[in-house]
Structure formats: C-alpha cells, structure tokens
Amino acid sequence: MTPKPIDILKERLHEVAHLGATIALLHWDQEVNMPAKGADARASAIAYLSAIVHNKFLAINEDGLLDKLKRGLEASKIRGNDAVIVAETWRNYEREKKLPEAFIKELAETSSKSQTVWAEARAKNDFGLWLPWLEKIVKLKRREAEYVGYQDSPYDALIDTYEPGMTTAETTVVLNDLKDFLVPFLQKIKASKTKIDTKKILGQFPLDKQMAFNNLIAEKMGFDLGAGRIDKSVHPFSTSFHSTDVRMTTRYRKNDVLYSIGSTIHETGHSLYEQNLPAEFFGTPLAEAVSLGIHESQSRLWENNIGRSLPFWKYFYPKLQKEFPAPFKKLKLEEFYKIINKIEPSFIRTEADEATYNLHIILRFELEREIIEGSLELKDLPKIWNAKMKEYLGVKVPNNKLGILQDVHWSGGDFGYFATYSLGNLYAAQFYNQMRQAIPQIDKKIAKGNFAEINNWLKQHIHRHGKTYRAGDLVKKVTGEPLNSRYFIDYLEAKYKKIYG
Amino acid sequence: MTPKPIDILKERLHEVAHLGATIALLHWDQEVNMPAKGADARASAIAYLSAIVHNKFLAINEDGLLDKLKRGLEASKIRGNDAVIVAETWRNYEREKKLPEAFIKELAETSSKSQTVWAEARAKNDFGLWLPWLEKIVKLKRREAEYVGYQDSPYDALIDTYEPGMTTAETTVVLNDLKDFLVPFLQKIKASKTKIDTKKILGQFPLDKQMAFNNLIAEKMGFDLGAGRIDKSVHPFSTSFHSTDVRMTTRYRKNDVLYSIGSTIHETGHSLYEQNLPAEFFGTPLAEAVSLGIHESQSRLWENNIGRSLPFWKYFYPKLQKEFPAPFKKLKLEEFYKIINKIEPSFIRTEADEATYNLHIILRFELEREIIEGSLELKDLPKIWNAKMKEYLGVKVPNNKLGILQDVHWSGGDFGYFATYSLGNLYAAQFYNQMRQAIPQIDKKIAKGNFAEINNWLKQHIHRHGKTYRAGDLVKKVTGEPLNSRYFIDYLEAKYKKIYG
Question: For A231, which residue in chain B has the nearest alpha carbon?
Fold first, then answer.
C-alpha cells in the first residue's frame, strides 16, 4: 500500500527533527561539558550538520510533495491536525528556502565561535575582544533579513522567527505601554518607606545540596527526571531533543541559594512545556511550542506568578529551612517572602525582579532594533547601553561584564528574541488570571505542594496543542479576550501594594 | 585556482569525520548523561545520522574522485602522506559500499536499543530479557559478513574492521600460544605459598575525592584536561570527537579506590593516543589510530607495564596515602604493590589481573567465532560461558551478571573486537621493552613522576603516524622485529617471580 502524502511528509519531518535535536545536543554539550580547546571542532560539526538539516528540510519538497499538500489545504481537502502540519511546515519552508546553504553554514559556524569568544570576553570584561565577532554576526543577521524580506523594518524579519506574526511596530507599542506604567511605578516603590534587607537570605550553601534542592523543586513541580536532567552552565537555558529527553541548566552562587532556585523554577516552566508536547507528533508543528513568547509565559508563570507567591513558599519554606538552617531557621516566612520580591533596579537582567525586568528588555529591544536597522555604531554600544540604564533604571553600570556583555543572545545571533520575554510576562499574567478562576482553592493546593491541577490545566489548555493556534488566537481561546497588558499591571499593583504599602 | 583532487578529498573526509564525531557524541551522551526515557529517540537520531554518514562517505566518489586518485596511486604519482590517505580511504570505501543504507540504519538503531536493553538485563541479571536483542544483532552481523565477503570464516570479515589484515586463523594461533603459556603459569601461581590479602586496600572513598585523584593521575600522565574530560559511566570507555576533545569515562566503587584508578590509567592511555594524533590531518587516515590492537597497546602499556609497576607507585603512593590516610597510611608500599598485582582467577574481565585477563579474552574469542560461524545456539551461551570459565580459570560463575552479561560489546554489535585486547598486551610488552632501552634511567624518571620522555617516545614512534603503517609493519619499524609473544611472557615471568617467588 502506498503511504499517504501526509504520512510521507511526517516521516521526512521526523528525520529533520532528530537531526535538529542532534544540533541541540551539540549546543547543550558545548555549554555544559565541552573542554575549551574543543570549540573550533565543535563549531565545524555544528556548521556541517546545520547545512545538512537545512538541505534535508528543503528536500521535503524536492518531488513537489509539499506543494501538493499545500494545494490540498487550499482546497480544504486537508483539515484538522493535518492542516496545521501542512500550513506551518509550508510557512517554515517558505522562509528557509530563501536562505542559501553557504549562508546557513557561515551563520552556524560564526555564531558558535562567537559564543566562545563572548564567554571569554565576559570573563575578562573585554568588550573589544568580542566586538569583531558581534560585527560579523550583525552583518549576517542583516543579510538574513534581506534574504527573508520584510515590509517596514529588517527587524520584522527577525522577530517573526521567534514570535510568528508579530511586527516591530506592534511590539514597540506594547513595550512602550509597559514602560509608561513601569517608570512611575518604580518611582512609587523607591519612595516607599518599606525597607527590605536581602542580605538576610545569604549564607553558605554547598553546591551539591543546592543541586539536590533544585531537583526536588523541579520534580515536585512535575518535571520528570526520567525524561530530562538539570545541569550547570554559565547562562541557564532549556533545550529539548524530544519530549522524552528535555534538559535544563542553572547556575550557582555559593552564598545565595535563591539565585539557583529562581532560575531552576523558570527553566522548569519551559521544560514542563517541552515534556508535555505530544510525542506522537514529534517532528511536526503539532509537537512544537507556539512561539517564544508563549514558551516564556510558561517559565514566567511558574517563576513569578507561582514561584514568588506566598502559598508556594508556605510549602517549600519549611523544607528550605530544614535543608539550610542557616540563615533560614531564624528568618520568618513573611520576611523571606518580601525579600524574594524586593523591587530594586539592578544591572543584570536575569537577576532582576519581575517588575524592573521589563525595563531591561525594553532597553535591549530598542538597541537591537537600531542595530539591525543600522542606525547605531556597534563600538558605541557600551556607552549607549549605560546611558539607557541610567535613564530607565537610574543605575550607573560599573563595567561591561555587568552591562553589554551579560547576555549570550546576540553572540549566538539571536536578534528579535528579547521582546518575547516581556510578552511572556503579559501572557503569563493573563493565563494565570484565567487559571485561578478555573481551579478552586488554588492557593491552598499550592500551599500543600499539590501542583497536579495546575500542570493539567497548562497541559490541556496550552501544551498539548503544539502550534495548532497562533499566540494571539491561543490567548483568545484560553482567556476569552486578546492579549491585554492590564492583567500584568493589575497583578503587579495588587501584589506590591501589600508588600510596599 | 581549482583545488587539487587530494585537497577536495580531504575536505570531503573532513565533513564525514565531523559527522562521525557527532555520532560519537550521541553515544557518549547516551552512556554518561541521557535520561532513561530518551533511549528510543536517541536510537532514531543515531540511525538517521549513521545513514547520512554512510551516504556522505560513499559520495566522496560520486564524481569518480577517489577512482581517479586510486589510479594516481597505482601509477605511483601519489606518494608519502597523500598515498596513505588514498590507500586507506579506498580500503574503507570498498568495504562501506558493500553495505546497503537500510542495513546500516537497521544495525545502528538495533544496536543502540540493544545496548539499552542489555544495561537493564545486566542490572536485573536477566539473560532472557536480552536474548531476543542478541539474536537480532547476531543476525545482522552475519549479514554484514556476507555483504563484506571473506575467504575462510565469516568471522574474518568482522575482525578485519578492528585489526586490518588480521584473520581468524592467525588470531587463533596467537591466542592458543598464549593459552598454552598461561594455564600452567596460573597453576604455578596457585601453588605458591605467597598469600596476598587484597582486603587491606579497601576503605571508604568519597566519590568526589576519587574523581579528583583520578584527574590528578590522568593529568600527570600527560592528559590535557583542556582538551578532554573524565566522566562516570557503567562501562569505562574512551571516545574522541577530535584531538582537541577527547573523553574518557570510568566507574567507581565507594570501598575500592583502585577500581577507578585502574580504569582511569587504562583509558588515559587510549586518550593520550587520541590527543596526540595530528590535528592537521583530522578526518583523514593520518589522524586515525592504526588498529584497535595498537590502541589497546597504549592503554595496556600505561595500565600494566607502567601503572602496576613499583616506580609508578613510588611516585603516586605517598599522594594516595595523604589523600586517603585510611587504609593506606599503615600499609607499606611493597605490600600495596603486591596487592595491586595479585593474580587470581575472577569473574569479571575488566577487573582481572594482567595475566588471567587473557584467558577471559580467549574464552570470548572462541565463543564469538562460533556465534558468527553459527555453530552454537545463542540460548546456550550462559551454559557454555560458565563451562569455559570453569575449564580455563577454575571458577564457578554464580550468575549471568558476573558472566555472559558483563560486557557491553556484543550488545553494540562489536564482534571481532575482543581479541584486540590480548593483541594489545603483546604489542605493549614489545613496545615497552624497546622504550626501556631508548630512555635512560626510565624507572627513576617514573618514580619522580616525570612522564615527559615516555609520552614523547610514544608520540614520536606511534601516535604521530596515524594509520601510516599497518600494525605488523609498525611493530617491525619500532622494535626491529615482528610481533613476538615472548616479550609479554618474559615480562610476566620476571615480574611475578619476584612477587610469588
């Protein structure tokens, strides 16, 4: 019996996905295990395999299979799940075939090497060391935008990779709205008489005990350690080779256990999404996340809406106190809760509180838009970065390690990515508001460490659909209305009124 | 300028090698990191990539490039390094093109899954669980022998993969000679009045301290930790992605630090070979080891000839005593030396002493020859295994975990591999004899922890040549005569006369 065209497509996508997962392993290993001198060989391996994946993906249509399926879709002969597979695959195919093989290879090789140089530059606090690599990357990303094409800004072509359908103009509006709220909000907080001493949670926390505690939290949240693992890396990240092998990393400070806990809860949010994607559709858009913004909504919902809530710590705080009597035994839960929610302008995005975090994003969004549009000199970046930090957050950046060199994204060619973090905060607040109405006595359940209903709600309403819905449609379907920043703003106002009076 | 044909070949081999290294990473990760549920997805990824590597390798000749170079070689127009590259590549190409793509894929997928089942079967001591997978693997390996072709025994076709040019008949002769020496030798040892109590080196050794000590030994031996790493796995192994990224694993017992030290020294011997292969020829036979037997000579030379010698421990024993006062502080070096050299029949090959080890190999060699020739029933393997253990070593195997299930090789399809371990012992003794004449006061240097000259000798005489010489020719070139088991036998007799009187 001849297989159906849609099944042939699925088999081809299956191979591409496994090869793509292998590239993900090469990257994961690079961050977690690879010895320093292996960097050049690794870059070559990634480049060769990236070119193969690119060609294999384009080859799904070498006999016109995808064209044929696309015509079936347009004639409404293909429906349901198959329609999603064909439509989204077609979308990726259209984009991918515009990129020449040599370009894909050059980008992969350059960004892999650039990440290695970035790590060294960051360690040495030496922007000049990284600048030539940043220049190469930016040139390549601008070429990518030209290959892909765009209507208004070349930056549109890059955002679209991460947040399908979103434009520079729309993102600018949303982020400006957020900035308009946050700047006066931050002023009010600064004026508050409530003083919070974060030093009280510092201590000495052996690495292995921290790791064990993080594994405990992740597992309790629902992460299946039989289908994933948690490791150490410079910059925390999550990656997935398949829903049965999902890996996250975190980073550690010996004197601050909350530093690793925060990033673990965040990455676990991402990883639960990946573990819950339907394995039976592996390789197809039905087993892929909607967008980075929706992905980020899962990490933020866990990290902030749940992970920085009082009920969450009603459950975990006694365990933390037992595991680390110093300094927690003498510190009351209520005070601990205020400390982990302190709002304070700082230098490092990944360590920022849930409010000022968005100002870090807005800064990056504004810079990268200009970088890609070509309206600033790359060598001036540290100066411009520091000026904006002063303007938005009121802080004076002491060095590039705490400034422009802090994030891995640009070194890896990820331009158009940052905005999705703040979109994630907005989606998260709106989803969480809906979930709280759907799950009776949710706070009591959280306080008992019972996360099953939360996981199930997220799985049913978001994870299991894969890419069936675009981000905007999913939000409407789940919450009954389009994305509305009001939910995030209301959440911040209600929460911080109690903390700061 | 058009690149020269030989340079085009090198570029093609370069890509194949990086993709091959990526498969090696998939395997390494499977043993070291992969969560249990990820096994199926991993098997698929390995299978897809294996098929691609197979096709890419065959495609080096799709435009007749290799044919053309082969003709140049035959006309003596290609010489020196280039001649080695063309001749050895041709040899691999001839073998590879006989294997159908579907076969390669099936073998890769089956052996990956079989290894996972084997690990479970071993843990559960359940041969029946693994048997159906062993049957699949054997069927595939016999098919492989038919595809490749052979003169006398299908087993020839498999040995040739690991030890180019070696036949079943020749190996049988060498191993029978060894058996003829070892059986009476073991009788004499058993009759000796010298009693050695190995329990004296047992204690409590925390894992992290063991790991640190092993890293110290490996580094001191010359292993570059900036171009490699040491991890933990069920079965110790070494693998290389490039001479700048060489990885070994070891395994640990909490009560026996020598258990991990022995395997670390062994794997470091392999890894030094890989780190010393010339990076500038990466991808070509000039950056590949001669054969598994020669590879094993490097691990054995370090593990036994050097690593179980008195001078070696004159240097390391005080460090071991300092790191682990219990039980070593009260144990004299001379007694420690006897303990780590005790000859005693045992169940597990990888834990055997350097003499009885070879009887373990002879047993496996005899079995796998029959397995591949089809002259025994696989379901009878445990029975036959146990009978031979009784006959050669005089021990009664209590269960399959300590018997037929102990080695990973067959589960991964590695038939024809085991004999190379004993060949390695013979090569090692002959090389070491030569090296001792070339390096003045070598024992004093070892006793001072000065391994630079040894490393340099191995690099100059063996490592840097890659596959320039066949094993037999290399031995002649380095030692002035063909492989001669007398060196190994003399070494054992001299050493153990002192220990057992």
Answer: B33
User: Is A241 in contact with B21 (Cβ distance < 8 A)?
Assistant: no
Which of B12, B25, B249 would you mutate first to test chain A, the one with the most A CBs within 10 A? B25
**Which residue of B lies nearest to A25 if distances are taken between CA atoms?**
B26
- DSSP H helical segments within B33-64, as ranges? 39-58
Any chain A CB within 8 A of the CB of B224? Answer: yes
Report how many helices (DSSP H) and strands (DSSP E) chain A contains, helices first. 21, 3
Element (H, E) at B140: helix B127-148
CA A3-A7-A11 angle, to 5 degrees, is 110
Q: Does A45 touch chain B (CB under 8 A)?
A: yes
CB-based contact (8 Å) between B120 and chain A? no
pTM of the predicted model as reported, rounded to 2 decimal places: 0.91
Q: Is residue B94 annotated as part of the catalytic site, yes or no? A: no
For residue range A449-461, list pLDDT tens digits in order: 999 999 999 999 9
B19 vs A242: CB contact, 8 Å cut-off?
A: no
Amino acid at B126: D
CA dist B289 and B271 (Å) reads 11
Q: How far apart are CA A426 and CA A417, in angstroms?
A: 15
Report the C-alpha gap between B186 and B354 in whole angstroms. 12
pLDDT digits (tens, 9 = 90+) for B45-92: 999 999 999 999 999 999 999 999 999 999 999 999 999 999 999 999
Alpha helices in B149-228 (DSSP H): 154-162, 168-191, 207-221
- Give DSSP secondary structure letters for B190-210: HH-S----GGGG-----HHHH
Q: How far apart are CA A155 and CA A141, in angstroms?
A: 9
- Nearest residue in B to A280, CA atom: B41
